[in-house]
Amino acid sequence: MPRQITTRVEQWPLATPFRISRGVKTVAEVVTVAVTEDGVTGRGESVPYPRYGESGAGVAAQVAAIERAIADGAGRAELTALLPAGAARNAVDCALWDLEARRGGPSVSAVAGAPLPALVTALTVGLDSPEAMAAAAAKLADMPLIKVKVDAGDPETCLRAVRAAAPRPRMIVDPNESWDFALLQRLQPALAELRTEFVEQPLPAEADAALEGFAPLVPVCADESCHTVADLDRLAPRYGMINIKLDKAGGLTGALALYEAGRARGMGIMVGCMICTSLSIAPALHLAARADFADLDGPLWLKQDRPGGVAAEGGRLIAPAPGFWG
Length: 326
What we know:
Layout: E1 4-20, E2 23-37, E3 40-46, H1 56-65, H2 67-71, H3 76-82, H4 87-102, H5 108-112, E4 118-120, E5 123-125, H6 130-138, E6 145-149, H7 155-165, E7 170-174, H8 181-186, H9 188-193, E8 196-200, E9 220-222, H10 232-235, E10 241-244, H11 246-249, H12 252-264, E11 268-272, H13 278-288, E12 293-295, E13 311-313, E14 316-318
Parallel strand pairs: 5-6, 6-7, 7-8, 8-9, 9-10, 10-11, 11-12
Antiparallel strand pairs: 1-2, 2-3, 4-14, 13-14
Helix pairs in contact: 1-4, 6-7
Family: Belongs to the mandelate racemase/muconate lactonizing enzyme family.
InterPro entries: DgoD-like, Dipeptide_epimerase, Enolase_C-like, Mandelate_racemase_C, Mandelate_racemase_N_dom
EC number: 5.1.1.-
C-alpha cells in the first residue's frame, strides 16, 4: 500500500515579540509533514525563512511536488535528488527518520547519537534599547549561556548594558548580517573585553570575503553563509566556526554530513534553530549533543508548544517525552 503524506502550514503565536536586525516576529510559521506507512506515522517540521526566499505556501508546494515519489517508497537517500537543501527537505527528511524508527528500524539515537538528558542552550536577548536589553539580560543573569541580538546602530552600548546586567553567563553576539567589516574591526577590543565567545555572522553573506586573512580577537561563526557541505571550502578561510541548522542543511541527514565535514576542517560547531516548536528541536538535539554550542531555544518563545515537547530548566533543555520523535 502506498504511503500517505500530509502537509500542513501552521501558525504558532509567540509569547513576546522577537526582534533581530531584520525585523520583528510575533508568530512562528512552520510546515509539518506526516508520512504514514502501514498505520505508522513519522513527523517532521520545518520553518520557512524569507531570508532564503521561502514561505509556508512555497514549502508546502515543494513537498506536494514530490509526494508521489515519497508515496512510492523514496527514502532519505533519494531526497537530495528530489529537493534542494532547505525547509521542505528538512520536514520530509525528519519525517522519514521518525517513520523508520517507529517501524522498527534503528532508533535515531543509534544512528545519529543520543541527545543529552539536559543540554545547555543559549537563551536569547532580543534587539531593543540598551535599557530594555539590560532588563531582559538581568532575568537571565544566572543562566550558563546567553545570545545577544544587535544591529549596526550602537551595538557596543547594548552589549555593555547586557554584560553589566548579566556578568556571569557566557555570551554570544549575533548581528544577523547587519555589520560591515570596519565595524567588526573596530569592535574587536570591546568584544574581547566583554568576554564574547564568538560573533555570529556579522557581515552579509555576500560580503564575507572580507574575512579572509582577518585575525579576530574573538572567533567569527558562519550562519547565513553556511548551508551545506558544499559551502565549506569557501568558508574555511573566513570563519572559525559554523552554525548548523536543519532548515538550512535540508534535514538531519544533511546536518550530520555538514557536522562531519566541519569537524574534518577543524571548525567549531554550533547547532541552531529558527523560532519553532519542539518538533523541530527533537531531531537537532541528536546533533547538538556533539556540538560545542547549542542555540535551541526556539520553542521557549512560543505561547504554547506541542504537548510532550522540550522543557527548560536553569538554561538547559530537557529532552522531549519518550515517543515524541525518533
